[in-house]
Design brief:
With about 130 residues, the chain is mostly helical. The protein is built from five helices and four strands. It has a two-stranded antiparallel ribbon.
Length: about 130
Amino acid sequence: MFSDRNKYGLVMFLVGGFIIYTFQLYNSLPVKQIAVSQAADDGKILWQKKNCISCHQIYGLGGYLGPDLTNVYSKKGAVYISAILRGGTNIMPNMDLTDSEIEELLAYLKDVDQSGKADPRTFTINTNGTIHQ
């Protein structure tokens, strides 16, 4: 029905269209330029070193033993979070964090909190598959 040349042309057309669509899609995404402090960067590294994501979630991604911490800073505050980090709970062990490490984790959680909401039930799904908080 179709010659090999026509098939090759159709494949090239579809691949080209996909590349153009992908380029347009990623260039149209809203980008938030957020200045991140050095303490927040250090807190993120500490979050990764201590493997906090194995028990806790950020934006709904991570473990399920502990709560989602995306918006914990605005809901509970720095004093509450510091107390938990200093002593642990029945489920969360005391991680033996220094005062500077606690400040770094607080800066990271504050930065995450300011970046958006974690509840996917409130997200609006756009026609191109992206979400809007």
